[in-house]
Specification:
Elements lengths: L17 H78 L8 H11 L6 E8 L4 E4 L3 H4 L4 H10 L4 E3 L3 E2 L13 E10 L6 E8 L2 H8 L8 E6 L4 E3 L13 H9 L2 E6 L8 E7 L5 E8 H12 L3 H29 L6 H6 L3 E6 L7 E4 L1 H7 L3 H4 L15 H12 L3 E8 L5 E12 L5 E10 L1 H52 L6 H29 L10 E2 H13 L5 E5 L4 E2 L3 H17 L7 E10 L3 E8 L31 H11 L4 E5 L5 E8 L4
Parallel strand pairs: 18-20
Antiparallel strand pairs: 1-2, 1-6, 3-5, 4-5, 5-6, 7-8, 7-11, 9-10, 10-11, 12-13, 12-16, 14-15, 15-16, 17-19, 20-21, 21-23, 22-23
Length: 701
């Protein structure tokens, strides 16, 4: 800004600073005090947040440690139990081949050979239904003391072939001694004894110290509790500190296992241990549970020992802030007297990266009175070439731009405006200019100047145009790919039908042929053709969803639901629908019928075999003109980890031999709902059923 303009009251003015120094200094001192106060509060808040986060991280770390330990121990336990089961199955195969006319010593020796590489099994015996000991790797006289009827009853009542009994005192089978330092776990399995009537019981005495050694290999605090349970709450391995091994009323068995096969929770059921951060996992094939617990009090005590020293640096930092505030205040007082300004600073304008131009609003034709160096660099014009001229020369001959009309109107009205213009540099090259014009008024309200800030956005505009072109190509390629996929799925159905039909024709031609392998292969080929046809039909249906008209119709949800339920649940046994008053929706009745049909079919297919099907449909008004529907059934449920997966194309949680379908229904439902602007997701605990929650637009008519 040239000093000559300061002498002209109609242009840019400067005035002395002294009159404003004292109030400006006072404001700055107050500002420093506020900033320091906020800084002290910020430090305190930051320390509190750090302590809170570190406490949460300590708890999370303990939870993660128990989870990873439970996972590792469950794998080790599963492998050991699997080896015991394999041993019992192998022994069962040998038992079926025995000849009781041979001396029992031969059978005993054979059992001992099976245990040669199983050091964790102390003894194994084979007992007939009448109590006769057919074979024993240990002392038969002690084994004879076992309550054989109770053992047979326990094994026969179990839902799985191998039974894990409760912990017994004694070293070997039959050596039952209360308070004995030795213990064993009985593993039992029923087997057929050749062609003779009646089963035999194979029982193995497993050393629980083997599992304790596995537990001892894990590095955890001494207060940690590692335990192996049965599903009924019987403790098999581990220390409780008090009480017996029956804990069926513990929350692990009354609540946690009913919700999930693995998880983490706070266990306060054992007062001698205090609150424990406990993780548990179940074995895959046996009713066994591994739990790992860590004392929450000890975890928090360790956290306090590491976190409390942070308070000392916080106090020191606060004092440092106060001292810095005093020094800064003295510095501000001296600097403010020297640098305070009431008007626009020329130095600031000249260092700006954006071009700045100032026009005199009091002179005819709004001549330029100032341009900064950035303006000169952007336009290629020097200040001597532009001062005193109206900025319209930057538009060249391109003066029909629509944005120019907005700029002219704003200048005529004396108001600010923003626009994007195509300007021309001194050498004639065009560039895009993002322009902001601000109207400057005096204290009396009189318009004195227009300040224009321009930013060269030529590269940005080029990129925007390239991006728009790329989006257009992507849309064209996407549409072409969708059409090709749809046509391909349609035309492949004909060869799929031919595969199935000709396989059936060949099978009829070969009727009476004794070659079972050929007939089986033809049957498989026919089923494969039918399966391919179904897959192609579902693919075509899924792709067709993008072509269907979703909007433009209105229907009553309650009537559509009743009609679809009546049509699809007929002859399906004991099923019941419960629904309240449902709203009118901005959806065509056909599309809503498709959606409800998919949800009803899913409930019917995946119903629970042990209880009548009950389906409940509710709706409630939500924001943005939508209704939220809850479609709840009491069927098999969906494991929580698969709740998102079920909406994928061809995603299935069960084999096709158990349930029909190709895994496309919920994918179609999701596409239909999202096309209507709604959302859809599933909720389930994996046990008591499933709830599909979706939002649909409210009718506007």
């Amino acid at each position: 800004m040239s000093p000559r303009f300061a002498e002209d009251p109609g242009r840019l003015l400067r005035r002395p600073v002294g009159a404003a120094t004292r109030p400006q200094t006072t404001r700055l001192i107050v500002m420093v005090a506020v900033v320091v106060g906020l800084a002290v509060l910020g430090v305190a808040g930051a320390i509190f947040e750090i302590l809170r986060n570190s406490r949460a991280e300590a708890i999370e770390s303990a939870e993660q440690s128990t989870r990873s330990t439970a996972l590792a121990l469950t794998g080790a336990v599963s492998r050991t139990v699997q080896s015991i089961d394999v041993l019992l199955q192998s022994a069962a195969g040998r038992v079926a081949e025995w000849d009781l006319s041979h001396p029992f010593t031969e059978r005993d020796q054979e059992i001992r050979r099976l245990l040669r590489f199983m050091p964790h099994i102390r003894q194994m015996a084979v007992i007939a239904a009448d109590g006769t000991i057919l074979a024993d790797s240990g002392d038969r006289s002690m084994t004879a003391r076992l309550d054989k009827k109770a053992l047979f009853a326990e094994a026969q009542a179990a839902p799985i072939p191998m039974v894990v009994g409760s912990l017994r005192f004694g070293r070997f089978l039959g050596a039952e001694t209360p308070n004995s330092p030795h213990q064993y776990l009985p593993f039992m399995r029923l087997a057929d004894f050749g062609g003779q009537a009646g089963p035999v019981l194979l029982i193995a005495a497993v050393n629980p110290l083997y599992f304790k050694d596995v537990f001892a290999s894990v590095e955890l605090p001494s207060s940690a509790r590692l335990r192996l349970w049965r599903y009924d709450g019987t403790l098999l391995v581990g220390e409780l500190g008090a009480g017996d091994g029956e804990h069926a009323d513990d929350p692990l068995f009354t609540t946690q296992l009913k919700m999930s096969e693995f998880g983490t929770f706070i266990d306060s059921s054992h007062p001698q241990d205090g609150a424990m951060i406990t993780s548990y996992r179940t074995t895959l094939n046996w009713p066994l549970v591994v739990s790992v617990g860590m004392s929450r009090d000890e975890v928090l005590a360790d956290w306090k020992d590491g976190a409390l020293p942070l308070l000392w640096p916080a106090g020191a930092l606060t004092l440092a802030l106060l001292a810095a505030a005093a020094v800064l205040t003295r510095s501000l007082i001296s600097r403010t007297r020297a640098e305070a300004m009431l008007l626009l600073s020329e130095r600031v304008l000249e260092t700006m990266s954006n071009g700045v131009a100032i026009s005199d609003a009091t002179a005819p034709d709004l001549p330029l009175v100032y341009v900064n160096p950035a303006f000169e660099r952007t336009t290629g014009y020097t200040s001597d070439q532009v001062l005193g001229r109206n900025p319209r020369f930057l538009h060249g001959d391109d003066r029909d731009q629509s944005a120019l009309g907005d700029v002219r109107a704003a200048l005529a009205d004396g108001r600010s405006v923003e626009a994007v213009l195509r300007n021309y540099r001194a050498d004639g090259t065009p560039y895009w200019n993002e322009l902001t014009i601000s109207a400057v008024r005096s204290l009396s309200g009189r318009l004195t100047h227009f300040v224009a800030i321009q930013r060269d956005i030529t590269d940005q505009e080029k990129h925007r145009a390239q991006l728009a072109e790329a989006y257009g190509r992507i849309e064209r390629y996407s549409a072409e790919l969708e059409r090709f996929s749809f046509i391909l799925a349609h035309h492949l159905q004909e060869p799929a039908r031919h595969i199935s039909v000709y396989a059936q024709l060949v099978a009829r031609a070969l009727e009476g042929n004794g070659d079972d392998e050929i007939r089986n292969n033809l049957t498989y080929l026919s089923k494969a053709g039918a399966r391919l046809k179904e897959l192609l039909r579902d693919v075509q249906l899924y792709l067709a969803m993008d072509r269907l008209v979703m909007t433009g119709g209105v229907c009553q949800a309650e009537a559509v639901l009743d009609k679809e339920w009546e049509a699809r649940s007929r002859d399906k046994g004991d099923v019941d629908l419960i629904s309240g008053v449902l709203p009118k929706l901005q959806v065509s009745s056909r599309r809503l019928a498709d959606l409800f049909g998919i949800l009803i079919d899913n409930s019917l297919v995946f119903r629970h075999p042990d209880r009548p099907l009950r389906v409940k449909v509710e709706a409630e008004k939500v924001e943005n003109g939508f209704w939220r529907f809850s479609f709840t059934d009491n069927g098999l449920g969906i494991p929580p980890e698969f709740l998102d997966k079920v909406f994928g194309v061809f995603e299935r949680l069960h084999g096709r031999d158990h349930f029909p379908g190709n895994g496309v229904g919920l994918a179609i439902a999701r596409k239909l709902v999202e096309t209507l602007g709604g959302t859809i997701h599933a909720e389930s605990d994996g046990v008591s059923g499933t709830t599909i929650v979706l939002t649909l637009p409210e009718a506007t008519e």
